[in-house]
Structures are given as C-alpha cells and as structure tokens.
Amino acid sequence: MGLRDLAAKHRGDPFGITSAAVALVDVHGLIRYWSRSAEDLLGYPAPSVLGKPAASLLANEDSRAAALSAAQQVGEGWEGLIIARHRAGHPVELAVRVCPLHAERGSVWLAVACEVSESRRWELDQAVLRGLLDESPIGIAVLDSELRFQWVNQVLVAMEGLPAPLGAHPAGGPPGLGQVPSAVDWQARQALLSGRVTPAVEHVPPPQGRYRRNSQGHLRLRSSFPLRDVDGKTLGVCHTAVDFTAQDRARERLALVNEAAQRIGTTLDLDRTVQELAEVLVPQLADFVAIDLFQGVLAAGDLTPGPVTGGALQRAAHASIHEERPEAIVPIGEPTGYPSKSPQRRCLTTGRPILDPVLDPTTWWLTDDPQRLSKLVGLGVHTHMVVPLRARGTTMGVVSLLRWENPNPFDEDDLLLVEELVAQAAVCVDNARRFVREHNAALALQTSLLPPDLPDHCAVEAAYRYLPTDAEAGVGGDWFDVIPLSGARVALVVGDVVGHGIHAAASMGRLRAAVQTLADMDLPPDELLAHVDDLVLRLADEAEAAADGPVVIGATCVYAVYDPISRKLNVARAGHPAPAIAHLSEPVELPDIPAGPPLGLGGLPFESAEIELEEGSVVALYTDGLIEASDRDVDVGFERLCFALAHPDRPLEEICDTMVRILLPDHPHDDVAFLIARTRALPPDRVASWEVPADPRAVHEARDNTDRQLAAWGLEDIAFTTELIVSELITNAITHAGGPIGLRLIHERTLICEVSDASNTSPHMRRARSTDEGGRGLFLVAQVAQRWGTRYTETGKTIWAEQQLPAHPRG
User: Fold this and answer.
1) Partners of 467 in the beta sheet?
2) Alpha carbon of residue 7 to chain centroid
3) Would you state the pLDDT for residue 394?
C-alpha cells in the first residue's frame, strides 16, 4: 500500500459513513444490513449475520451489560464502547454510535463502529489541532489558491492588527474574510509559486507611543507552505508567524554555543571532529560551510605557530542545507586551490576573520576563480564569511560560510558567534591532531618492540595474532617471540605485562629484550625465568625511585624450548596459562606444567616440564586475555580453545582465524596475544654423533669420522674448516675437562658441530703469545665459524660452532 493509499484510508472522521463499519438493526434486534467495512472489521460476511441477533456478535453477556451501563445518551441515540467477537475467535474492542431511523414501516437502528484505537487517535488529533490553532502562541492562517483568508486564529489577528471578527470565522467560511497584509501575501505567494516552504525573518519595529524609547522591537519568523490534498492538488497555503525578541535571539546563540560544546569533539577522530563543526554551523548559521585544513594537520605533523603565508590546504569537511551539496566545488580529501587574493588566503596571512559581501565591488578576487564565481552567482550567495581555525597560537586551516537562502546577511554578531564556535572546535581539532601524532608514535614504538615477522626455522612453522584492547592507541603489554637457539632448537615465548597503553608497551619491550639476551645464553627455561624475575624486581625498584615512572609488576611469561632432534618440548611458566598441544592422533591436551609465581614476586623457584611430541603437532601459547574473553569464564575459554585447535593439520593462519572467531568478542576487555607453532622433526640421517675417548690419539679418529660424514652429506667443500673446529674443540675437552666426551654433527640450514664434556668450567678465548705452544683453539674456531657458543647441561657443558653450508653442496 502506497503513502497516498494509506492517507486515503485514514483520512477523515473514523465514524464517517464511508469508512466506518455500518449495520442496520430492526426493533427486534436483528441485523438487516451489514456493510463491507463491517465484514473487514469483524470478519463475518454479510450472509452469515443478516437476520441474526446483533447481541450474538458480542463477546459475552458481561460485555453487553458493561456496554449498556457505560453508554452515553447523545440526542435520540447513544455512544459507547463494546467488546465484539471476531470471526477468528478473538475479542475486538469497538467504539460504537447508534441512532434511530424512523420510517413508515417501523423504526430501525443505525449502528456505526470503528476500532477503539482509531477513535482515540482521532480524538487526540482533534485535541492537538485545537490546541495548536487556539491555544498556542503561533499565529496561523489558511488562504485559498487565490490568496484569500479562509481561516485565521486570534493570535495572528493580534499580530497583524486584523479586524477582530476575522478570527472568529472557521475553516471553510466564505472567501475574502478580510484584507491580507502585504507581508503575508508576499510570503504565501512565494510558497504557492515554488511549492516549497518559504521561511523569512523580519524585524518588527516597536509600537508607537510613550514606551518606544525603551522598547527594542522584536523579530518575526514567517513561514508559508502549500496545502495539498491526497492527490497532490494544491488547495491553498498555510501561513504561520512567531514573534521573538532580540533577547530570545541571544538565548538561541547561547544555546547554540552549549550545543556545540556537547556535539563537537565527542571523539578523538580528526575527520569526525571537523564534520561535527560543520553540522553545528549548518543550517543554524549558514547555508553552506567548508572546512579546509593544512595537509600537515591531517598528517598529524608539527605546525608553526602564528599566521601562515603558504601551505597546501585540503578539504576536510563540508555541509549544506541541500542533501546533495551542489555548492561544493572540491570533494572531501582533495586539495583546495584558493587564489592568492581570496579571503581564505588573506585570512590565513593575517590570522583575522573576513566578512565579505559577494557580487560587490569588493569581490574583485573572484575574477581569478571563474569556477567559484559561476557557482556563487548561480546560487545567489549574498554574503561570505571566512574564519581562521586556530588553537594554541597555531593556525590549522580556515572555515568558509555562505548564505543565500537565508535572506539576512552575516553581521558582526554572527561573526562573533562563529569565531567563538570555531575557536571552541579548534581546540578539539588540535587535540585530535595531537592524539593522531601520539597514536603514530605509539604504533611506531609497538612495531619496534614486537617482531616484524617470525623467523623461518627448521624446527617449527609459526603464526601469531596480536590484538591490543586499546584499539585507538594500538599498543598493549602482551608480547611473543620465536628465538633460534643452538643445536637447531627454537624458543617459543609469550608474555603479558599488566596494564595497557604505552607504559605497558615500554615495559614489555624491556622484558622481551631481556628474554632474548638470556635465551642467547642457552639457559634452561626455569633458570631463564628466574633471571627475568630478578630483572622485574630491579625495574620495579627503579620505577619507585623515579616518581614519574610506571611500576613494572604483575608480569607473566611462558617459555618453551623445542628440540627437533629429540622432539621434546621443555616448558616453564611464571604465573601464565600452560600451553595447549594439539596432537595428530589424540585429543587436544592441556599439559600439567608446574605453575610458577608471576614475575616480580621474587624468592620463589620455577620448575620446568618436558613433553615429547610427534612431528606435526601444534603447540599454542597465549595470554590469559584469550581464554578469559568468553564472558570471563575460564572453563568455557579452555573448551573453545580445544575446539579451535582441533584438526591441527589445517593451515596455521586458518587456525589463528578460527581462534579469533570462536574465542574473542568484537571488543575484548584485555590485550590478547597468541603464538601457534607446528613442530618439525630433523631426520635421523641429518644427525651424526660419536663417543670420543679422553685420549689425544682419539682426535685423529674424530677427524676421520667427520670427513666420512661430510662426504655422505656432500659437504666436502667445508671439510677442512670442520676438521679444524673438531680438532680444536676435542683437544680442549681432553686437555681441560676430561671424559666422557661426545661429538655431534647436525646438518640443517647450517652445519653445527657440538662437543660435550663433563666439566662446568666456562671456556674463554684468549690471544696466545708468540712463544706459547697452545691457547689458540677457540681463537681459531671463532675465525672460521659463523657463530659459536656454550650451553650448560645437567651433566656438564656443550661447546658448539656453526658454519654456513656451501652454495652448491654435492649430492
């Protein structure tokens, strides 16, 4: 049903004979006529009710008695409410009017009914109409298409000084009730010709008499709009008038300033802030407004205080009284090319607002801008106001306002008001600019603190997600890392610093750097966490000593080392959730890892646990924000985590997306970081190991074993340097440590040579004098190896050295 059909259906009195349900009831109470509207209202077709008692349509006897007791006598008939029974069985509350019809063959009763809701809506409409026309302070008149009064209320009679009897004529009275004032005639004629609402404000001088000197007069807002029937035909014009004094105008200006304070700067989004300013200015003060900012403001760069003589402007926002904005010459986001002599450039140069009439001898600057000249002439713009957007002594852009449909030109009061609103908005714009700059700095800090990309490692394939809860700042206290270790091993780390924002991110960066440094020392997971715990205590003491420093407490961490040769994962945790392990042939496991205390408590030990994994298993390390996001129910979080990790043979990125979708709401309450890694195993034929007797004669045999293994791997090109490394490391072990001694070669992306012994003595490199017979072993190893180092084990230590593989190995 269209709007026109809907209007036609509901127009007029609901008891109108053409729209209401109509029935004729004879003196015996039998129904003799049943209208189509009655069928629609109660669902009974005419044949099913004709000749039957009207009382049979009532819901019950109680409703009949209640209707009779509440009925009101109106003339010879009565009206009231009844409850009828619909054909479908449900009750229907009806408003009914009944009157007798006298005929030669006897009297019958005419019953007219409608739904109670329609009756009450009609009564409310009539009450609103009576209040608007007779009791409101708005002057209202109805004129026909010949612009003759058809109806005038007493308020307009008093406003216009019309003859007193004029206002007593109701709508539909005789035409030509009186002389139409010229102002009313002009306003109504404009509405009749244009077919649109035509508002205008005029100043009404104070009345003549002894009090004229103390009277300031007042303003009168006139508005006329065409009256049309449901078919769109113009019937006439409705004219309204409202008086308000200059004091009312001051109140309106104050209200606008208060409105601006509430509407501008609701967010720290720069684009939204300038658009809010534009929406406040239009249509309250201007028909069109354009806000142009320097590109440095939009880029959140540093600005030079004071007026500016140059710089590229860019359209940041504009608003118009027309939805399609035909006045805009420059789209949002595009540079604005104002001529050098334009009010905008002069405003920026002087730092002062400019109020210019348009199409006046003073608008000579438009000759340099024909496109803008054509647009202004076509619209009929009569005044042009330009105000600089300045805050804290810095000019950020310019605001241009135009009027053409508002017949009143901008005046000095308007200029003062716009300056106040723009200055108020400029502070919000500068706050948004500063926030963007700080946001960019925070993101740069976060980018530098977290790994830009995970290293490609032969031990694991890894993927991650980092989701800070402070989405605007983009930084938080969670971190993750994948750290290559000696012996083809890899360390997986996830940590969490309590708090959000830039301070938490800075603390996180220090802890991540500490973990990386300690990982290079090849410390076991439990010892590494003990050292990090000491660091957190020291940082907390430093922060307390510095009054402005954040206290680093409450950090948690899980540290795991995976060995692709033994396929074992060694894990320790400090107040952090245990990792989840998705096996290929078993359900997802949440292993029982000893729960160490959070970092920063001090004095408490950490324990580690070792887990053997099959190749292709997926290990998930995560912060507590992941499992606590499910309505803060950890058990539900673990269940969803296990579900998301099922089927670990899927691509890791797909698993990450599943974890985010299943475990996290749209706006998590805490930072979230998780790292998942699919384990790989180094084939047995890539590892060779030998027991070496603590006898100097065994060095020759170790070199021979090394040569044969390198030949099998096709690495003869680095056989000489490898023999040198093996010889020096085994000789040092025999000389300074003693047995048992082990030699292991690992062929992965580098060639790793490891020599283990039972001594805990730390080797060190020194420069031998020319007369010394020894002391050059580690120095030679450092010269030919790419990297070398020492790690300590439960039975002693291992010295390792890595070499780059030849570019084209044989075989």
Assistant:
1) 672
2) 41
3) 84
Q: Please state, as a whole number, how many other Cβ atoms lie within 10 Å of the Cβ of residue 596.
A: 25
The continuous run of DSSP H or E covering 385 comes out as strand 383-391
The owner of tokens 């740069």 is 444
For the stretch 527-573, pLDDT in tens is 999 999 988 888 777 767 665 555 556 789 999 999 999 999 999 99
pTM of whole model > 0.70? no
Question: How far, in Å, CA of 377 to CA of 363, rounded?
Answer: 12
DSSP 772-802: -SS--HHHHHHHH-SEEEEEEETTEEEEEEE
CA angle at 419 for the pair 416 and 422, rounded to the nearest 5° = 150
pLDDT digits (tens, 9 = 90+) for 106-152: 678 889 988 888 888 888 887 877 777 777 788 888 899 888 888 88
Contacts for 728 with CB less than 8 Å, ≥ 6 apart: 777, 778, 780, 781
Q: How far is CA 658 from CA 170, 631, 645, in A?
A: 72, 18, 8
pLDDT tens string 702-755: 999 999 999 999 999 999 999 999 998 988 888 887 778 999 999 998 999 999
| 413-434 per-position pLDDT tens digit | 889 899 999 998 989 888 888 8
Position 547 scores a pLDDT of 56
Q: How many residues does the chain have?
A: 811
Query: Please, are residues 343 and 350 in contact by the beta-carbon 8 Å criterion?
Result: no
Q: How far apart are the first and last CA of the chain?
A: 82
Question: Structure tokens of 136?
Answer: 């409101």
- Report the pLDDT value the prediction gives residue 359, as an integer from 0 to 100: 58
Looking at every residue in the chain, the average pLDDT score rounds to: 82
Please name the residues in contact with 702: beta carbons below 8 A apart, sequence gap of 6 or more: 690, 692, 726, 727, 730, 743
DSSP secondary structure, 263-282, as one string: HTTSSS-HHHHHHHHHHHHT
| pLDDT at position 685 | 92
Distance CA 799, CA 748 (A): 18
Q: Which DSSP state fits 566?
A: T
What CA–CA distance (Å, rounded) separates 368 from 623? Answer: 63
Burial of 780 (0-12, 13-18, 19+ CB in 10 A): middle
Burial class (CB in 10 A: 0-12, 13-18, 19+), 486: buried
Q: What angle do CA 261, 266, 267 make, to 5 degrees?
A: 145
Distance CA 733, CA 419 (A): 84
> If pLDDT is split at 50, 70 and 90, which confidence band does 211 have?
very low
Three-state SS string over 503-521 comes to HHHHHHHHHHHHHHHHHHC
Tokens, residue 271: 């684009």
Q: Which of helix, strand or coil describes residue 495?
A: strand
| 742: Cα within 13 Å, side-chain hemisphere | 15
Helix H or strand E encompassing 202: strand 198-204
Is residue 184 pLDDT above 90, yes or no?
no
Buried/exposed 57-79: b ≥16 CB within 10 Å, e otherwise: bbbeeebeebbeeebeeeeebbb
